[in-house]
Amino acid sequence: MKSVLDLSAYLVLDPELCAEFGMVETARAAAAGGVRTVQLRHKTATTEELIQIGRVLHDVLDPVGARLVVNDDVAAAVALGADALHVGQGDMCPKKARSAIGPNMVLGLSVECEAHMRAVDPTVVDYVGISPVFATGTKPDHAAPVGMDGLARLVALSPVPAVGIGGLTVSHAAEVLAAGAAGLAVVSAICGQPDPEQAARDLVQAVREAQA
User: pTM here?
Assistant: First the structure.
C-alpha cells in the first residue's frame, strides 16, 4: 500500500548545511521536533553511499512514523524501500521513474513553470514541489524565482498536492498555505540551525497555526 506523506513541513537534507550535526542527527532532531517527511538529497554521493545513509535514516525516522524520500536516485530508493522518490525536470522522466519504483512508492516531481505543471500526469505523479519560490543558495542553478504570486498560480494549476520550496523559512508558512500549497519544503530553515529540533518545532507550529 502506498505511503501517505505529510507534506506540511517537509525537510530536505543538505550535506553541507548539515555538516555540524550530520544529516542523520539533523533528521533525528527534525523528527523529534515534529517533521514527518525527510528527503535525502546528496548530489555527490554514489548510489551505494545513499543506500548506506538511507538505512540509518530509516532507523531514525521509522520509530516516530516519519517518512523517507530519496532524491533522484531510483536504484537507491528501490533498494531502501523508501516511502518516496523525488525527481527533477532534468532527471528520469516521471513515467520511467514510476515504472522503476512500481505502483506503491510515492513519486514527487519538481516543477518550475506552467508548462511543467500542465505536463503533470496525476496517474503517475503523487505530488509536486514548486521551485524556487525565492532565490536560494542551496541550489545555485535554480530557475527564476516564482514568488508567492507565482506559487499561487502554479498551485491552482496543479492536479496533485503541491509544496513550495526555495528560500522558505518559518516566517513564510502562513503565506505558502494561503497560496493553496499543502506545505513548505525547507533546507536552511532546519539544516545548519543551532538547534534543529527547535527549528523544526517552530516550523511545525507555524504550519499548524496557519492551518487552524
Answer: 0.95
